Amino acid sequence: MTTTREGTMTTVHGTLDGKVALVTGGGRGIGAATALRLAREGADVAVTYENGEKAAQDVVRAVQALGRRAVALRADAGDAGEAADAVERAAGALGGLDVLVNNAGIGVLGPLEDLAPEDVDRVLAVNVRGVFLASRAAAGRMAEGGRIITIGSCMTQRVPGPGGTLYTMSKAALVGLTKALARELGGRGITANIVHPGPVDTDMNPADGPFAAGQRGMTAVGRFGTAQEVAATVAYLAGAGFVTGAEFSVDGGHAA
């Protein structure tokens, strides 16, 4: 990757030159880091947000400062219509779609007996149905070389304690979806992979938070990861044509 300056603007030339990416939930945390990493590799980037418009617009400005086009789109991943429509809007705004990063997700943790039916419906709507519908819409837009990358969870490979049944179930469903997409779309030259982050230092789960010590102790390296470390794996997969149907752990050895 090379970088040049044109006036006061930085222009990036990398492995994703000429590509268009959509990162759902791209206004914060892993999503924001991924949007910026893809832009540094040369992609134009759309991000979706549900409530954090300011944060999403900050990401847009940061991408534009790299010399790439960017747009922020409000969309509720748990709404069946909006999940798919966000793909169409992103493709319309940026002239196509080459990379979809299914990052938007929610976590509801707690004992089985405390989980209300509406909790189950909302988690499955956002974490499973929304991902399926966005992926289907993206597949309809992508040509050969398309990439579908989904953010899973280290808990699909190791559940360290009680309280994570609903969240883990929703993320485990994405493993099956990814493998099936790889088979269904492989003949068209479109890949599908899933990345499983471990404890990552974000505003939702800070490395100095009240539950951080226990999470840190579950990793082999004894620390939280960074959003940028996860984004680096996503960027690799966005450029990889002979990797599909695979799970990638970026978890510091959580599952070791």
TrEMBL record:
It comes from the Bacteria. SUPFAM superfamilies: NAD(P)-binding Rossmann-fold domains (SSF51735). InterPro entries: KR_dom (IPR057326), NAD(P)-bd_dom_sf (IPR036291), SDR_fam (IPR002347). Residues 19-203 form the Ketoreductase domain. It holds the Pfam family adh_short_C2. Keywords: Oxidoreductase. Coiled coil: none annotated. Belongs to the short-chain dehydrogenases/reductases (SDR) family. PANTHER family: OXIDOREDUCTASE, SHORT-CHAIN DEHYDROGENASE/REDUCTASE FAMILY (AFU_ORTHOLOGUE AFUA_5G02870), SHORT-CHAIN DEHYDROGENASE_REDUCTASE FAMILY PROTEIN. This is 3-oxoacyl-ACP reductase. The lineage of its organism: Bacteria, Bacillati, Actinomycetota, Actinomycetes, Kitasatosporales.
